[in-house]
Structure prediction request, 99 residues.
Amino acid sequence: MGKMEIGETPSQCAVRETKEETGITVEPVSMLGIYSDPGHIVAYPDGEVRQEYEVMLIARPVGDRPGANDEASDVQWWRPKTSRPSISTRRSGASSTTT
Prediction:
């Protein structure tokens, strides 16, 4: 999972993170939604505690090929409304609690 860098817009972050994690260059076309669970709290070893949220964008591929790398052990294309692989939302080095 990535994070937005200082000075980036959410769309720029999505393009960069998608390229880093999948090898694919994308163009965001719309926003799907913003999601959070108030009961999902993440606590880091350094003492930082936060409630995170996700900004989900819809994008179209504009270049390159998908490929595994040090951030993604597998990259696949799948069609909407079909079975998708389970997605892990747990960050390494962090623990999560649900209240």
About this structure: The beta strands are 25-36, 40-43, 49-50, 53-63, 95-98. The longest strand covers residues 25-36.
